[in-house]
Design a protein that fits this description.
Elements lengths: L3 H8 L6 E7 L2 H11 L9 H6 L9 H5 L2 H8 L2 E9 L8 E11 L4 E10 L4 E10 L3 H12 L11
Antiparallel strand pairs: 1-3, 2-5, 3-4, 4-5
Helix pairs in contact: 1-6
Length: 160
């Protein structure tokens, strides 16, 4: 099965194309992310800390949530050149976040801009991002198509 984002990339992306997907964040993922990034801020680990900040509990790392844009990038072959995040509200363990990515500009040389909005399961915006990067040109789109025709074995989202 071909992932819909990858299919759209093969067929050609254009400004205003929009991609929406969700993910539920677990405590285990947050702990692993902290280990990977060496970010041991108490806001992720100690409720005494979150109580003083008036959070309802421990919160996920902002960049773990922001990393949702990587799903879009990985599926369409976007090579990131810049990212800017604004973290607006907390994401708690087991919250489900929707990421909506919109391509805002594409130049002939494949350089592109996009925006992402992150919303929790209550419909509250918890973050946003702007991105710059390079989209696949004809040669890369041809390789993506070859990969898909081979079953896209390195794309774990193909099998979900």
């Amino acid at each position: 099965m071909i992932h819909p984002m990858r299919k759209k990339a093969i067929n050609g992306l254009k400004p205003n194309d929009e991609f929406t997907y969700t993910r539920t964040f677990t405590e285990a993922e947050t702990m692993s992310f902290g280990d990977l990034t060496r970010d041991y801020n108490p806001v992720h680990y100690d409720t005494r800390w979150t109580d003083t900040k008036r959070f309802k509990g421990l919160i996920c790392h902002g960049l773990l949530i922001g990393g949702m844009i990587c799903e879009f990038g990985g599926q369409v072959g976007w090579l990131a050149t810049g990212m800017n995040f604004k973290f607006i509200g907390p994401v708690y363990f087991n919250d489900t976040v929707e990421c909506r990515v919109t391509i805002t500009d594409i130049q002939e040389n494949g350089r592109a801009e996009a925006e992402a909005v992150f919303t929790n399961q209550h419909g509250t915006m918890v973050g946003k991002a702007s991105m710059t990067g390079r989209l696949p040109l004809e040669k890369e789109k041809s390789i993506l198509e070859q990969m898909v025709n081979e079953g896209d074995p390195t794309n774990k989202l193909t099998f979900e």
